[in-house]
TrEMBL record:
Residue span(s) of domain PWWP: 93-172
Record protein name field: Peregrin-like
InterPro entries with a match to the protein in the record: PWWP_dom
Pfam families: PWWP
Name of the gene this protein is made from: LOC106166984
Organism, as annotated: Lingula anatina (Brachiopod)
Length: 221
């Protein structure tokens, strides 16, 4: 695969501007210039998540990216890098994702830590729902690693899903658009769009950033 300059893929979709550029840290830009597309997609996700949830300065994120990229290259040279995992970006609790259940469209959801306190948890002041014991017990049915997700549907449905049924939400605008347009049924498409707006609103409450979608629902309903 041809090399793609990393800065061209580092885009802050929440703020709508390219905040990570060669002007911020040209030395690191030169060092990461040969990162291939799959690595860049992962690093883009890591950078966006760092800014949204840790609120790091661009220079600090660049240093983190440099360490990640160096680690990836070391693994590739040693032969310990699994090519089957290249397109599977690491996910963590409290990440927003597109989740796919059999018979249903890709739908916005939030990854929940099954080991979270029973008394509840606040993410930057935003309450995170506690999974019921019955939902937690269902994990025993799976032999493969699975993630616990809470959908942004009306019923707030819980589900356990493997990694290949999850895609990051709010990181790649092209991916988000394709998921939003994936279903041809108007009612389903509207429900997915509503859930997407709820997911973005949740992220904005967590980060304190303005909602880029505010006003869209009212103008189209």
């Amino acid at each position: 695969m041809d090399s793609v300059p990393l800065p061209s893929l580092l885009y802050d979709h929440a703020a709508g501007d390219s905040w990570l550029s060669s002007e911020n840290c040209p030395v690191v830009t030169d060092a990461l210039g040969d990162v291939d597309l799959s690595e860049s997609q992962e690093l883009n996700y890591m950078a966006t998540r760092s800014r949204l949830y840790c609120r790091l300065a661009p220079q600090e994120v660049w240093l983190t990216l440099f360490k990640i990229s160096s680690s990836v290259r070391t693994k590739k040279r040693s032969g310990s890098y699994d090519s089957d995992d290249e397109d599977l970006i690491p996910l963590e609790p409290l990440d927003l994702v597109w989740a796919k259940c059999r018979g249903y469209p890709w739908y916005p959801a939030l990854i929940i830590n099954p080991k979270m306190p029973k008394t509840g948890y606040f993410h930057n002041g935003v309450p995170i729902p506690v999974p019921p014991d019955g939902v937690l017990d269902l994990q025993k049915r799976f032999e493969e690693p699975v993630y616990l997700v809470l959908f942004f549907d009306t019923k707030r449905t819980w589900q356990w899903l493997p990694r290949d049924k999850l895609d990051p939400l709010g990181v790649d605008s092209g991916l988000d658009k394709s998921k939003l347009l994936d279903n041809k049924k108007p009612a389903v498409k509207k429900a997915v769009k509503k859930a997407y707006e709820k997911a973005i609103a949740h992220r904005c409450r967590v980060t304190g950033e303005p909602n880029p979608l505010s006003g869209e629902s009212s103008s189209e309903d």
